[in-house]
Design goal:
The protein has 332 residues and is of the alpha/beta class. It folds into 2 domains: 3-178, Rossmann fold (3-Layer(aba) Sandwich), CATH 3.40.50; 181-323, N-(1-d-carboxylethyl)-l-norvaline Dehydrogenase, domain 2, CATH 1.10.1040.10. It has helices at 10-19, 32-41, 63-67, 79-88, 114-121, 139-143, 157-167, 180-202, 207-228, 238-249, 254-263, 268-273, 280-295, 300-311, 315-323, and strands at residues 3-6, 25-28, 58-60, 72-75, 99-101, 130-134, 148-153, 172-177. Helix 4 (79-88) links the parallel strand 4 (72-75) and strand 5 (99-101). The longest helix is centred in the middle third of the chain and has 23 residues, at 180-202. The chain is globular.
C-alpha cells in the first residue's frame, strides 16, 4: 500500500504522520514552504507548531507526484476547495483506488457531501470504495499520543477493514461502518452545533446549558441524517455523539472558536481573518439549513446559528428565542 494524503492542514498532517510509520506515505501541501518544513525538519510549524512528525513522512507540492502509484488517497482538503483539487488530479486516479475524505462540510451551491463531490468529479470511480474518516478527532491531542478513536465509513467493508488495519494503533482505535451518508452528514452538522456551543460559552453559560445544547443538537443531527438516508445507529456513535461532544466542548475546535468570539460580541469577519485554517461551519451552516428545508426537517438550533452568521442577529436574542419556543414533547 502507498498512501497519498492531499492537504497539509492540521488534521491531514496528523493522519499522514500516523500512517507513515506503517506504509509509504506522501502528503501534498499547497504551499512549498510547508512541504519543505515537513521534509527537512519533520514539522509543520504553520499548522501544528511545536509537534514533531514521523520521520518516514514525505511531502511534495506537486499534486500528481503525490497521487502517482497511490493505492489509497486521503482527501484532507476543506469543502470549498475539495472539487478543484480533486479535479486537477482526476486523470491520475485509478477507478478502484479507495478515496477517504477527512472534510466535514457541505459544498456551497450543490449541497453535496464530499463523497458525492468525489463521484461527481470521478463518475467512473468505484462508489463502494469512496468513504469518510470521522469522529472525535482533535488533531493536536491525537498527535500528542492521547487515546482516541475514529470510524471509517465505506460501503465496501472489506476495503474499510483493510484501511482500518493500517490506520489503527494502540493510541488510535479505528472502527468501521457502512453508513457513509449518516457519518458524513453528522460531521457537517456537528460543526454548526459547535458554533452554537461556542456562542453559549462566549456568553458565559455553564455546564447545564452546554449539556442541554448538545442533547438537542444530537436530536437535530439525527433527524436530518436519517431523513437523508443515514442509519439511526450512526448518530449515537463516534461520527455522531462522539464528535459532537468533543467539538462542542473544546476550545481547540475552530468552529467553537468562531462561536465563542460571536458570543463575546465580536464581528465574524474579524474572527475568521485571524484563523489560519477554515472553520467549516461558517459556510456549511447555509448548506445544512438548505438540506433541512429540502427534507422537511426542523432544526431550530441550526437556524439560530444561521441567523447570527448571515443575518447579523444578536446572540443573546437568538438564545432567548430558542428558550421561549412553544413547549412540546422531548420526542418531537
Amino acid at each position: 500500500m502507498k498512501c497519498a494524503v492531499i492537504g497539509a492542514g492540521s488534521w491531514g498532517t496528523t493522519v499522514a504522520s500516523l500512517v507513515a510509520p506503517f506504509v509509504p506515505t506522501v502528503i501534498w501541501a499547497r504551499r512549498p514552504d510547508v512541504a519543505e518544513d515537513i521534509n527537512r525538519k519533520h514539522r509543520n510549524e504553520r499548522y501544528l507548531k511545536g509537534f514533531e512528525l514521523s520521520s518516514e513522512l514525505a511531502a511534495t507540492d506537486e499534486l500528481d507526484a503525490a497521487v502517482s502509484d497511490a493505492t489509497l488517497i486521503v482527501m484532507g482538503v476543506p469543502s470549498h476547495g475539495y472539487r478543484d483539487v480533486l479535479s486537477r488530479t482526476a486523470d491520475a486516479v485509478p477507478r478502484d483506488v479507495p478515496i477517504l475524505s477527512l472534510s466535514k462540510g457541505i459544498e456551497s451551491g450543490t449541497l453535496m457531501r464530499m463523497t458525492e463531490v468525489t463521484m461527481d468529479v470521478l463518475p467512473d470511480h468505484d462508489r463502494s470504495v469512496v468513504g469518510v474518516l470521522t469522529g472525535p478527532n482533535l488533531a493536536r491531542e491525537i498527535l500528542d499520543g492521547q487515546p482516541a478513536a475514529t470510524v471509517i465509513a465505506m460501503e465496501d467493508q472489506e476495503a474499510a477493514r483493510s484501511i482500518q488495519q493500517v490506520f489503527g494503533s494502540p493510541r488510535f482505535r479505528v472502527y468501521t461502518n457502512p453508513d457513509v451518508i449518516g457519518s458524513e452528514s453528522a460531521g457537517a452538522v456537528k460543526n454548526v452545533m459547535a458554533i452554537a456551543a461556542g456562542m453559549a460559552s462566549g456568553q458565559g453559560f455553564g455546564d447545564n446549558t452546554l449539556a442541554t445544547l448538545i442533547t438537542r443538537a444530537l436530536a437535530e443531527m439525527t433527524r436530518l441524517g436519517v431523513a437523508m438516508g443515514g442509519d439511526v445507529r450512526t448518530f449515537a456513535g463516534l461520527a455522531g455523539l462522539g464528535d459532537l461532544i468533543a467539538t462542542c466542548n473544546s476550545s481547540q475546535s475552530r468552529n467553537h472558536q468562531v462561536g465563542y468570539g460571536l458570543g463575546h460580541g465580536r464581528e465574524l469577519g474579524d474572527i475568521v481573518e485571524e484563523m489560519s485554517e477554515v472553520a467549516e461551519g461558517v459556510k456549511s451552516t447555509r448548506g445544512v439549513l438548505a438540506l433541512a428545508h429540502t427534507h422537511g426537517v426542523e432544526m431550530p438550533i441550526a437556524e439560530k446559528v444561521g441567523s447570527v452568521l448571515y443575518d447579523n442577529a444578536d446572540v443573546g436574542h437568538a438564545l432567548h428565542e430558542l428558550m421561549t419556543r412553544e413547549a412540546r414533547s422531548e420526542y418531537q
